[in-house]
Amino acid sequence: xxxxxxxxxxxxxxxxxxxxxxxxxxxRDLRTTGAVAPSxxxxxxxLTDPVRASGAATLDVLEAGAGTGAVTRALIPALxxxxxxxxxxxxxxxxxxxxxxxxxxxxxxGAAQSVRVHHALVEQLDTRRSYxxxxxxxxxxxxxxxxxxxxxxxxxxxxxxGGTLTYFAYRGTRLAxxxxxxxxxARRHRAVEDVLTGYQRRYATGRWTVWSNLPPATVWQLRRxxxxxxxxxxxxxxxxx
Length: 241
What we know:
Layout: H1 8-28, H2 41-47, H3 49-53, E1 60-64, H4 70-75, E2 84-89, H5 92-104, E3 115-119, E4 131-136, H6 145-158, E5 159-170, H7 173-180, H8 183-203, E6 204-210, E7 217-223
Parallel strand pairs: 1-2, 1-4, 2-3, 4-5
Antiparallel strand pairs: 5-7, 6-7
């Protein structure tokens, strides 16, 4: 399957197809598909900037919540030779699509083993590897506060000291939930934002808004401090599938 494009017409057709795929999967399960559309190019590039900033350095990279692969396609050409990319996706249909992308991508010819797709929740990722960069596309505002805390703690556990985490959040979601959802749902949303604010205060090194994305999104960059002990990954709750 050809998962990248070489012409504007094909690129548009691909983005339209991915948009419909997102809507269908979101209707099935908001826990695994919380985005309303695939990440736009500007958003994908900003999320993956820490990889490009490393230049020719060999990296271990984790992408969580990859969806249909918009960010994965930005990551693959940014990887220096010898780097490894683990892609984690909880939605089985998306995971299958991502495996097709990896098999067919021309830059991975003869080196497809450097990118591995895991069908799993990131909290349950069965790995002893630690990472220099983690890129998260998970829909935190659809989670319970305790789930968000579990995921963020897992990210920090998997990051090497000095490693970087990027994630994004759509702008205006709190107001939208307050206007359209129940009070309980609005309280849950505020509680999630409070959890994320705590991590931002401790670890954030940058924040940017991508106004050209649909909808506009804020990208956060967090860094694990250098003076913390090297993480020892916990025994996973479940194995990747």
